[in-house]
Amino acid sequence: MRSARHREQRDGIWRRRFGVVTALLLIGGTIVLLVTKLEWHRPTAELLHPVDVLGRTSTIDVHIADPQTGLSRSRVEIESGGTKTVLASEEYPAASWRKSTVPETTLSIPLQAIDRKISEGPLTIRVFAEDYSWLRWFRGEKPALEAQATVDLTPPTLEVLSTEHNVKVGGVEFLVYKVSSDAVQSGVQVDKYFFPGTPALFDDPGIVGAFFAVPQDLDTRVTPKAVAVDAAGNRREVNFHTVVKPRKFAEKTMPLDDAFLERKVPELLAANGAAPQADLVQGYLFINRTLRKQSEERIKEATRTSAKIPLWDGAFMRQPNSSPLSGFADRRSYVYKGATIDTQTHLGFDLASLRQSPVTAASNGSVVFAGPLGIYGDAVIIDHGLGIFSLYGHLSAITTKVGATVQRGDTIGRTGETGLAGGDHLHFSVMLWGTHIDPVEWWDGKWIHDHVTAKLDAYPRSTATARRDS
After folding, report:
1. Shared domain check, 340 and 262
2. What is the mean pLDDT of residues 419-429?
3. Which H/E stretch holds residue 352?
């Protein structure tokens, strides 16, 4: 009897314990389920760039995220003139009962205002997003983001004023044009190259001047175009009469020997933070290709900004008492043990004089670079205004510094054989916004007058912008 009661008591205890455990598990599971599926936080959305003004080619780039249960769907719509238009609508599948396969996404949506018949004027952008929370069935739809914008579909006006444009391949020309005040960028497009214009050169604030080049890697088939772009991205292009003259560049063979490789390759690799190479030929190819490209990228960076007035003073000075070793845009073949191992284009003039001869500034300007420059060795770059720069490479000594104002004929260093130079000489380049152009034109005062100064003088200018350009 006592044993039966004891078993009953024991079974009752186990039943109560089981009930408690079951209840706790149910409560815990319910809490986990509620925490997981009754997520209170709505998805978030943000614009990745300003949309104050939208144009013909504008995109709306938006980032949408829900790090808890993830996204179930999204929709981007606009309202213009009382009409709503859905630009994009996406649904995202669930990865499991807990969450979505997409915790965040970035949408890049072209406005396509013309195709969608969106008129100019105010516009409202709304971004909607839902997650996998059960609360989505009970809470009303509310935009995760709402932004106001203005639609502008009218490109800036642009009128070409100068009439004579004769340029040879590898050379430059100067264009004068007039743009409306809504233009935020203008210049000349030549194939893949863009050359920005310089505003505020003339008394009329709408008149702009721009040097443009037909770089040595293009040909006579190119058609330069004046372009202007407004804040909405609307673009105006205007063709103008240009005569592009052909040019044949010299072809040179550059023999390489072991003595040169042993002397230069380890030195240049170490000086530019590159790993040493047991194979000197491979080391040389790295220098002649990769380091050459890196050097040009550093030049582009150094020549990104330029004085907004002409700083030069007449014809550029050529290095005194020097003879040319090679010319602009020579096509070079590099030969080692009878085999061509590489080809490159030489972007400047090599000028030889006595060893460690003084190097002089070609014209007035401001020093924007002074130091090591990859294949050019120790080098100096001078800004002459309106995007025109000169470069002096392979120097054994630099006697100027960044920020210094120099005059034509001032000594800025001494010739040498730093960088990828086989002997003591000066590498001299003239560049337009970092693009190498033929220095011969800039050594010619008549060419500067006919192609540049005469056009600058054709329109009234203030004293400040009229100085030092003739």
Report:
1. yes
2. 96
3. strand 349-352
Look up the pTM and report it.
Answer: 0.85
pLDDT, the chain, mean:
91
Note whether residue 316 is domain-resident. Answer: yes
Residue span of the structural domain in which 329 resides: 251-437
Final residue before a domain boundary, out of 125, 151, 177: 151
Answer whether residue 248 shows pLDDT above 80: yes
- Which of 91-95, 97-101, 135-139, 345-349 is predicted least confidently? 135-139
Q: pLDDT at position 470, please?
A: 45
300-344 pLDDT, tens digit each: 999 999 999 999 999 999 999 899 999 999 999 999 999 999 999
The verdict on 293 and 361 lying in the same domain is yes
**Is the per-residue pLDDT at 184 higher than 70?**
yes
Q: Which amino acid is at 231?
A: A
Chosen domain end from 245, 268, 299? 245
